[in-house]
Amino acid sequence: MDLGDHVGITLLALLGVSTPAYSAQVVALHADFNQNTVGEQPPADLPGDPVGDRLTFNSAGGTIKVVDQAGPMTDQPLVYHRTSLSFLTLGAYVAPDLESCESYLIRWTRMVNKEVSFFGISFRANGNWQLAQFQYDDAFVLNMNGFQNPLSVGYQANVPQLFELTIDLVAERTSLSIDGSPVPEAQNLPFVQSNLTGTFQNILITGGGTEYPDFIIDDLEVIATCGSVPVNASTWGGLKIRFEP
Predict the structure, then answer these.
(1) Which of 22, 73, 125, 180 lies deepest, with the highest CB count within 10 Å?
(2) pTM given for the model
(3) What is the rounded distance in angstroms from the CA atom of residue 224 to the CA atom of residue 1?
């Protein structure tokens, strides 16, 4: 697409006129907590684009609050602070009209303040079918898709890690990178469970185990690649500036 086409589509989008569909990258969920109040649990509705992405909370095991900083994470991260053996759970849901795209790139930064016996994250379809999951475990081990599948990359106390997971709904495969490097044994893995609905709906992040560590999360974002996105005024604000005819 040349610049003239791009400008033309932009003007039509601003006028609310639908145009032909293009494969596009769209923000399906964005949670960086920078606009939230320090010392409080974030609201369920996420601000800005896209419309409809949201959070859910289960704080039975302690608190889930935004803090000014946590060690080297200085940009208002979200901290799970456990005070009992009950679980702490955060659910993050993509915008409902973006659950059935072809693929997704999920990014987030995560850190723990000490060795933990369980801290898990799962990626689910509508209907709670699990597409991928992994866990922090004892001895600073990270497991992918089950406790018997340790990764070659572990974790350290008070060291943030950037995770990037791709979910391909067409091929039914997932791949994981940590700190910009693909994890060899976590490439092109099949889904944990069959995706009977052909969707990606939510991320479930759970802190548990027998200790009381802090779990820190920030900059959670889901970018969806959709092959039939009409470029109109309602979706333009969420589109990355990239088109593929």
Answers:
(1) 125
(2) 0.83
(3) 20
